[in-house]
Amino acid sequence: MNRAVVACVALLLCGCATTPRNAVRVDVEEQPATRHWRVHYEFPRPVFEISFPKTRAPFRSTRWTIVEPADATWNSLGNHDTIVFRSPTTHTTVEFADDFAEREKDYLLNVAFTDGSSLLYTGHLRVSDEPHTWQFHTTANRTIRTPDRSATGSLAWSSTEETHVYFGSIAPVSTPRMTLIVDPGLPPWIAKQLRERVPPMFDYFAAKMSTDLRFRPLVLLSYGGPVSSGFSFKGSTVRGLVQLDVSGSSWTKESAEGAEEWYRHVAHEVFHLWESQRFLKDDRSEWLGESTAEYASMMAFHDLGGGGEQLIHRRIIEAANDCIMTIGDTSLSTASDQGRFRNVYSCGLVTQWIAAAQTGNAWQLFRKTFDRPVPYTTADYLSSLRAMTSSPEAVEQLVSGHTGRADLFLAEQLRTSGIAVQLVSADQATATQAVLRKALSAVVTRCTCRIELEPLCSGGIRIETVDGISARYEPGAALARMMKSSELGDVLIVNGTPMQCSKGDLDSHFKQLLRIDEATP
What we know:
alpha+beta; seven-stranded mixed beta sheet; 14 helices; 36% helix; disordered N terminus
C-alpha cells in the first residue's frame, strides 16, 4: 500500500474519523541521534505558498532548512513565516534541530527531559486553518504519546487542536483522573510530592466545580536542571494536556517556599483544564481564566493543608501591592491588550478574593459564569456577580473601570474582606523583593528619561544603589528613599550618578503600600 493508504488505515485503527478531503497531511520524523526533526507536508491541492502560525517574533526562516522543493524560499510577512514556491506544488519538506528557545507568551517548539526524552509542539508546525492529519515517527525505540493515545515507533493522530507530542521511554503513572509523566532527573522530593499531592488536587477541583473533567488529561513535567539561581517554573495547557517545566538551583533542596511554589503553579495549570476545557471561554476573557486559576491554586494549597489563613492573607497582600504598583490607567479586561500581562495575575487574584468576600462563594460564581452552551465572556462574569451580591461595584471597577488611588481603594476593600492591613511606606510593605525592584526601576526610568540622563533612561542598566542603599537587598528602602526625594525635590545618587527627580516621576496611583497586620489572628 502507498503511504496515504497506510496513514488512513492507521487512523481508522486508532478510532479516528477518515481523513477529510481538504486535510493537510503532515509526516513528522524524530531523529534523536542527531537531535533533528524532518517534517513532510502533503497538501490537498497545489499551492504557491504556505504560511505558518503567527508568532511575536518569526523564527523559522533563520532556524529551519527547506529540503524540498529545492527552489522554495523563505519570506516573513509581518509576524508570519512563509514559504514561497516558484511553481505550484502539493508537497514540501523542512528540517530543523531541537529548538528550546524561549518565546514571549508562546509555546516552546521543543522541551527536553533529562533522560533524552523530548516534546514537540504541533501548533508551530501547522500551515493553514484546514484540518491536519499527523503521522509521527521516531528512528529510536521510543514511545510516542499524544493526549489520547500512545504507540511505539510510529503513531497516527488526527485533531483540529494543537498539542505537545511526547517522544521517549519514561513509564507513565496513571490514576483515574490523569496520566502523569515525570522527568527522572527531577529532585526526588518534588517527584514524591507530585505523586502524592497532585491526584487529590484533581479531586478537589472536581468537588469545588461540581463536575468532573469528563476526560483524563496527560500531565508532563520536565526538569531543566539547576542552570540558574532561584525558582523557575513554566507551564501551559492545551486540549487534554498540561505541560510543566521547572529549573533553577533553589529546587534542589526541599523547602516550605519551594513546596508552595511548585504546588501553586501546578494547581494553576490544572485549574485551566476546568475553566477553558471542561468549559469554554471567549478569546477576550484571558484575564478571567488567569485570575480564577490564581485564586483556585491559592485555595487548593490552603484547603489541602499547605498553609494557614495568615499565609493566605500574606499572599493576597503581596499580590495587592504588585497590583497597586502596576495597575496604572488600565483595568483587568484591558490589561493584556496594553501589554500588562502581570496585572491579570496579581490584580486578578485580589479581584477574585474581593468577589469571594462579596458573594460568599467564589466557586459558585465561577461555575455560574462558566457553565453555558457558548463560550463565557467578561459580561457573563459580571452578570453572575450581580446576581450573587448587591454590592458588585468594587469588582466591576477593577474589571472594567478606572482606579485612581489604588493604594487607598484596595486597602479599604481588603479590610472589608476581613484582612487587617495598614498603609505604610515602601520599606515597611508586605511585598516581594522582585516587585519592589521593578517599581524602583520604573521610578528611576521616568526620572532619568525626563532629564535625558542616558544610559539609565534606557532601562538597560540594573539599579545597584540609591544613596548608598542596595537596590538588590533593600529594594523597599531604596524605593522609599526615591519616593521621598521626589516629593522633596532632593538630589540623590543612583549608581553613582547624581539626579534630581520630581513629584511627576512618581506613580500617581499610589503614595503608600500595604502591610499586613501580623498580630491579627
